[in-house]
Specification:
Layout: H1 20-27, E1 31-33, H2 38-52, E2 62-65, H3 70-77, E3 88-90, H4 93-105
Parallel strand pairs: 1-2, 2-3
């Protein structure tokens, strides 16, 4: 299996006034979202919407770790069923790695 190198970036890397889309496009080849608070929710929602509306490279996987985000995705998918296809869920670290690998190869 190819080696996956993971870097962690938080909002500290975003400069005030810099569009999140520039940050999302330049900083990663894929995104893993762990359970978090309102800041994580904001970042995840922005990346999710950019990918859903095809402003973000469709080859960049957005992986939601665990079940924490599933109720939110289910709620939003009630109005926009296609949006759920912009993210993937993974339960274990192994599943996260597999999902990232699949997303980067597609």
């Amino acid at each position: 299996m190819d080696e996956i190198v993971v870097s962690v970036f938080g909002t500290g890397r975003v400069r005030p006034g810099e569009p999140v889309y520039v940050f999302a496009e330049q900083v990663g080849r894929g995104y893993v979202v762990l359970p978090g608070g309102t800041g994580t929710l904001l970042e995840m929602a922005m990346v999710w919407e950019l990918k859903n509306k095809r402003f973000l490279d469709q080859g960049k996987p957005v992986i939601l770790a665990g079940e924490f985000w599933r109720p939110l995705v289910d709620l939003v998918a009630g109005d926009d069923p296609a949006c759920a296809k912009a993210v993937a869920f993974a339960e274990t670290p192994g599943e996260v790695a597999e999902s990232i690998g699949r997303g980067l190869r597609s």
